[in-house]
Amino acid sequence: MARLKVEHLTFSFGYKTILEDISFEIHEGEVVSVVGPSGGGKTTLLRLCAGLLDRQEGTIENSFKTQSIAFQDPRLLPWKNVLDNIAFGLKAQGVSKKERIKRAQEIALQFDLEEDDFEKFPKELSGGMSQRVSFARALVTQPELLFLDEPFSALDIGLKRELQNHLIELITKKEITIFFITHDLMEAVRLSDKIFVLEPDPGRIVKTFTLDIPQSKRDDSYVYSETAKLLKDPYIIETFELE
Ligand SMILES: Nc1ncnc2c1ncn2[C@@H]1O[C@H](COP(=O)(O)OP(=O)(O)OP(=O)(O)O)[C@@H](O)[C@H]1O
């Protein structure tokens, strides 16, 4: 079974230690989120795990065969149109041009992008549309492991829910493993099997919450009541400085 295994990871920018002695495992089919205050090192941890930053101390073993990432800012290629942006990762997989366009069109329509938008360039898109293109680009390659860095934060509630539901479908079909970071405890409760609390200065995982009910069965009242419980947890109170 594929897994991401992190052991004793410590990382500094210059003299500032950002992450200290982080260890955890993510197994195939799991959804794991990291919550914590701004500047606590969440993005740094995700970038290290995704191989976008060079490790300093500790080890990271990633045995997933394919992975992709969606960031908070969409990072689309300005010289490519919507479909070509979505299809970008498929080219590297050796998928034919015809098939790339077909798959990009299918996922674009699933994410409520319209045919009229397919030829548009990033500068012609709204923030929400760009987010959907970025999310579609990350999913079109059907990655085994998906890294998400606050991908829903700039979206309106309806769109956020729609994309979350799309992920929940993939999670329910056991088609994906997800590691994501968020400020939003409700989002973490809606989607995660495990939630790590990252306390800052330097970043350490101080608590892990486990949610046992399948994501597809978590209705709003479950999400609200579990989030309310989390908000009373001493580690959450301390980490987010709620008092
Ligand atoms: N390239 C860099 N060079 C120097 N310092 C950096 C760099 N990137 C991030 N940092 C610092 O590392 C710390 C952790 O940043 P990081 O972006 O990982 O936090 P975060 O928890 O993801 O924050 P946010 O939720 O605001 O995105 C911050 O103090 C930040 O200023």
Question: Would you mind describing this structure in some detail?
Answer:
The protein has 8 helices and 9 strands. The termini are far apart. Helix 2 crosses helix 3 and helix 6 (185-191) crosses helix 7. It has helices spanning 42-49, 82-92, 97-110, 127-140, 157-172, 185-191, 220-231, 234-239, and strands spanning 3-13, 16-27, 31-35, 57-62, 67-70, 145-149, 177-182, 194-199, 204-210. Helix 5 links the parallel strand 6 (145-149) and strand 7 (177-182). With 243 residues, the chain is of the alpha/beta class.
Please specify the SSE layout and strand pairing:
Layout: E1 3-13, E2 16-27, E3 31-35, H1 42-49, E4 57-62, E5 67-70, H2 82-92, H3 97-110, H4 127-140, E6 145-149, H5 157-172, E7 177-182, H6 185-191, E8 194-199, E9 204-210, H7 220-231, H8 234-239
Parallel strand pairs: 3-7, 3-8, 5-6, 6-7
Antiparallel strand pairs: 1-2, 1-4, 8-9
Helix pairs in contact: 2-3, 2-4, 3-4, 6-7
Adenosine-5'-triphosphate binds next to helix 1.
